[in-house]
Structures are given as structure tokens and as C-alpha cells.
Amino acid sequence: MPNPALPPLDDAHMVSEVALLAKIGWDFAAESADLDETLRHAIQRILDYLDAEAGSIFLLDEETRELSCRACAGPLDITGLKLEVDHGIVGRTITSNCLQMVRDVAKDQSFTGFVDAQTGFTTRSILCAPLLIRGKALGAIEVINKKSADGLFSPADSQLLVALSALAALAIHNARMAAALVEQERMKKELELAGEIQRSLLPRPRSDDFPIHGLNVPALEVSGDFYHFFELPDGRLSFCLGDVSGKGMNASLLMAKTISLFHCLAKTQHEPGVLLAAINDEVAETATRGMFVTLVAGIYDPQTQQVIFANGGHQPPLFRDARGGFQEFAAEGPPIGIFAGVDYLEQSLALAGGSLYLFTDGLTEGKPKNGVPLGDTGVRSLIEKLRALPAPRRLQQMAAHLQFPGAVLHDDLTIMVIDSVLAPLPMESTDLPACPDCLPQAREVARTAGRKAGFDDETVENLALAVNEAVMNVIQHGYHFASGQTVRLEISLDDAALAFDLLDHAPPVRPEAVQSRPLDEIRPGGLGVHFIRSIMDEMTFIAPPPGFGNCLHMVKYRKKEGSEHGT
């Protein structure tokens, strides 16, 4: 029914209402940790003030669309009672989002009398207000049977109940938010612990000259990707790389099981096909909800450079041979865990100076700065570009290509490389004071490296001048001639190329800021970038090691039969 006009209130009545609101508001603020107890106190205070016979607070379950009595006061305890949301006066209050004042329930078609029939209680009149937050009903608060005067609730009672329902709704909302935050923090800690356990299952980092290296970058706290390798007593290396279907905790648990099975079984089973079959049978026995694992496992012999492996539904391993050619090896069997009793065929190849790459689809489907997935062609180009780096740095740079500022990984990223030759170590690592006086030393270091690489005198001198320009650019544009700064020049050599890495402590630069400008726009003395690019076959900024601001990577190819690059 419409609310009649409110009668004027005397000062004492107003003070008592304000006091009630303050008390209940304080209860909600001080006792939010125990919401049920707070609601019981609140409904009892309301009954006492309104002189009502009974009252209750119903909350709505959004999933079941049921109303459940969360707190009550009066002669009967109906806590836990459940009602349909579209039945009764409480249900009408919630569906209409409006206060309901029913002075005679016998004349109201929505009144079901269900509780009265079950308990023997007699309901005569009801005042019911929705618990609203931003127009959304969380439930309702009702009071029953006014005991004083004519037994009817007044317009003043209805206005007070609306104010009290707003306080109760806010308290319920805050309590739910607090509970959600507690649960979120608990889940966060559990995920962090799971992530730590997962990382402990991965092999420890090895020195640059070790034949196998791997890298795992989870998209979330836990990962479904994994890799593993370890040395066998005869000097061979057992390795695997896999990807569990799905994400989150279930994927991480299956990852932990699979990597543990590999670590246990691969110690005694040195035939990759038989090993995959055994792991498959174990996983298929317990895998649930259609989960499976794509997995490559194998044996590498550093003495013969021979690799034998089996592939269960994983992305094709990618082989780069010593001449720069690429070859893929498609999977010869289904993913692990789909069904038992599968035979997995073995494949083999001789690295002969090449490198074998294994990776998950987080690499091929990852997006660099241009926003286009890397794809198979992009992976090959990236491998070719970074081939002169030691294996650990190579993998880090491949990952960094997809982890630029603002990038979001949508899938776990895992890469492994098996190198047939020792990773190139720096021929020389020289720290220089960042001042013009260091330039003669920088040129001489570059000349020495060029001669060791077998370049002719003209190329050696050009390399020295290119390094000179690069160092001078750091001094001038990175440090602005500030004193007390240093640069580091690292030089690496392998059978394909001579590489210079110039590291500084200047603020990181944007690569596009050092692009060559048109020649007619360049001032006298500003040909440095043009000159370096004209001498070097590659010049690019790569992610620096910890403690440095920038790393300028410059490569000069060595002359090889059939190559377009000469000296």
C-alpha cells in the first residue's frame, strides 16, 4: 500500500530513532567479523524499538534463487528456513524492490501462511523492507505483529525500517566483500606455494657450456608447461618437455605428476618410446575431465651428438643444422593420458653442429610488439637472429621478444634447446671508463677480436671504428658525458659469427629512437648509426643482463662457403 504522509515527530522521538540507528550502525561496524551474531542483535533491537512480536532477516542465494532465514527474533526460531523467491510477502518485497506494509495478511493474496501452519504462530500484520545495494536486493528484513496501540505498523515505522535495512544491506555487502578478500588471499597463498613447488621440480640452471638449457615462464602463478633433464650414469642426458591441457591448479597438479613420473622412470628406462608408453599408461589410469599431456622425451649423447626421442602429440621439435637449414619432426603418437596401451615410435637425428629446439605453443602463439602471433616462421627468424648468443641468453631473448612492457602472456611459455657444440663464451669481457679517453682501448679490443675471427685488415679496421662509434654514442647520448660511468664490451666468437655486446648503465632506450635517419637530415658528425649498420650484419638492442640498462648486440658474419656474407 502507498505510504501515508508522516506525522510530525517530537524531539524525544527523533533522538531515540537516531540513537537506535547509531547503535545498530556501531554493531555492524564493530562486529562485521561475525555477521550472523550482528544480524541477530540488530533484529532484536528493531523488535524492541518497534514493539513487534517477531522479526527475521532473509538473504537471497543468487545461484539457487532461494531465500534463507539468516537471523530471527521472537517466540520461534526459524533460522535456516528456505522460501522460494517468488512466493510470499518477503518474495514480493525482493522482486519489487519496494517496502511492503500489510496491515491485514488475511486480505493479502501473497500471504501463504506456510510458517503459521507449521508452527502454530498467528501472523496478523507485516512490515517488510528490501536490503538494497545499488538497486540490487540482497534479501529482506521483516517485522511481524505490532503489539502496541491498534496492532498496526505506522508510516513512521516503515521509514525507520527502510533506514535500518540500508544499514543492514551495507553490513552484509561489506561482510561478503571481506570474506571474498580472505578467500582470495588464501587462494593466492596456495597458488604461490604451488608455484614454488612447481619451480622446485624444474632442473637447476647449468653453466653456458652445458648441452641442454630450458626456460619456463608461467602466464599465471602456476603453469601447465614443464621441462626436465638430468645426466645418466653413462654420460648421456635424459630430457623431456611437455604441456598439460587446460590451466590453473588442475593443470599444475597433472604437470607435477607427469614430471615426477618422468624423473622416476627415465632413470632406468632409456628407450624414449617405451618410456612414453609407460608414462601414458600411468596418466591415463587417473586422468579426469578429459585432461591430457603433450610430451616429448628423449636421450642425448654428447659424445656422438645423437638424439633419440619420441613425441606424444606435442609440437614438432625444430632442428637448425650447422648450415642454417631448418627441419621439423612431427609427432608420431597421440597425447599422453587419452587412452592406455599406446605404442610410441622413436625418431633420431645427428646434431652435427646444429641445435634442436623444443617449445610449447606459448612461443608460436605469442605476440611480439606488432601484435601478430609469432608462428613457425617467426620462431625460425628469432632463432636465426639470436644464434650467436650463449644458449641461456638465447632462450631469455626469445622469451623477452614476447615480454615487452605492457605485454600479457595468454599461455605458458616453455623453451628447451639441445646444443651439439659448446656455447660460445666471451673471448673477452672488458670494462671501460665511459669517457673519450677509453676509445683507443675499445678500438684495439675490437681489432684483436676481428683478427682472431680471421677478417681481413680493412674489415678489422671497420669493426674497430664501428665499436668506437657505439661506445661514443653511449658516452654522449646515454651518459651525457657524466663522469664516473663505465661500459662493458663482451665479445663472442663461434663458427658462424663474431658478436659484440656493448652494455651500459644508462636509462633504457627505445630501439626506434636510434633508427637511422635519412642522410639529408643528418648533421655533420651524426653518421654513427648509419656507419655501424653499414659495417655490422646485425645491430639490435636486446634485453640486458641484471644490473645493466641497455645491451647493444652487434654481429659480423664470418665468411662461409655458399654464404653471401664475406669479409
Brief summary:
It contains 13 helices and 21 strands. A hairpin with a 4-residue loop joins strand 10 and strand 11.
How would you describe the overall organization of this protein?
The chain is an alpha+beta fold and 567 residues long. It folds into three domains: 11-179, Beta-Lactamase (2-Layer Sandwich), CATH 3.30.450; 202-419, PPM-type phosphatase domain (Phosphatase 2c, domain 1, 4-Layer Sandwich), CATH 3.60.40; 426-557, 2-Layer Sandwich (Heat Shock Protein 90), CATH 3.30.565.10. The protein contains 13 helices and 21 strands. It has helices at residues 11-30, 35-50, 88-96, 114-119, 155-201, 248-265, 272-286, 361-364, 375-386, 391-400, 439-452, 457-478, 528-535; strands spanning 52-61, 66-73, 82-84, 100-102, 126-133, 136-146, 212-217, 225-231, 237-244, 293-301, 306-312, 318-320, 326-328, 346-350, 355-359, 413-419, 426-433, 486-493, 497-504, 538-542, 550-557. The strands form four sheets. A six-stranded antiparallel sheet has the order 3-2-1-6-5-4, with helices on both faces. A five-stranded antiparallel sheet has the order 7-16-15-12-13. A hairpin with an 8-residue loop joins strand 2 and strand 3 (82-84). Helix 2 (35-50) runs antiparallel to helix 5, helix 5 (155-201) runs parallel beside helix 6 and helix 6 (248-265) packs across helix 7. It is elongated.
